[in-house]
């Protein structure tokens, strides 16, 4: 699959959220910007730091006509525990078949201690109200990432 670029239409998706509802990109078009952030696993150190950062910045992000959606291959049950434990105020999508991850090119070969395996790359896509990818964060450091994204979405108007 070709690598996604800023300025192109974001891949459409429809997936199950932690609450059991189907969430699709189409439902936000024309209404909200979308911060679609991909992370490897609920309740792991880096993913928790990143999620809590988005939780802390969520009101300011919402004030910018923007919704935060986290995506990982974890189950809805795992997402609900993660949300309850850290009081996360945004949608988490359960992408157990990795369809959304694959559409965005974040399901990829990774290396840890010399061992190769398939996993989720920690990346964030900011999608504008017209459905175009406005910004791609390919190398995400969990600490401070939400503030970095908030500063960018303030420029979208």
Keywords:
single chain; 157 residues; alpha+beta; Glutaredoxin; seven-stranded mixed β-sheet; two-stranded antiparallel sheet; 9 strands; 27% helix
**Amino- and carboxy-terminal Cα gap:** 32 Å
The name of the CATH superfamily reads Glutaredoxin
CATH class division? Alpha Beta
Query: Number of helix segments?
Result: 4
Find the count of extended strands (DSSP E, 2+ residues): 9
- Examine the coordinates and then state which fold CATH places here, giving the name of the CATH topology: Glutaredoxin
Order of helices and strands: EEEHEHEHEEEEH
Strand content: 25-35%
Bulk shape:
globular
Task: Count structural domains.
Answer: 1
Major sheet size, sense and barrel closure: 7 strands, mixed
- What topology, given as strand order, has the largest sheet? 2-1-5-4-3-8-9
What is the architecture at the second tier of CATH?
A: 3-Layer(aba) Sandwich
Please give the radius of gyration in angstroms: 14 Å
What is the average of the pLDDT values? 95
Task: Provide the helix percentage.
Answer: 25-40%
The structural class is alpha+beta
Low-pLDDT stretches:
none
Question: Would you kindly provide a written description of the structure presented here, covering whatever features stand out?
Answer:
The protein is α+β, with helices and mostly antiparallel strands. The protein has one domain: Glutaredoxin. The chain is 27% helix and 29% strand. The chain is built from four helices and nine strands, in the order E-E-E-H-E-H-E-H-E-E-E-E-H. The protein has helices spanning 45-62, 76-86, 99-103, 145-153; strands spanning 14-17, 22-24, 33-38, 66-72, 91-94, 107-112, 115-120, 123-127, 133-137. Strand 4, helix 2 and strand 5 form a beta-alpha-beta unit. Helix 1 packs parallel to helix 4. It is globular.
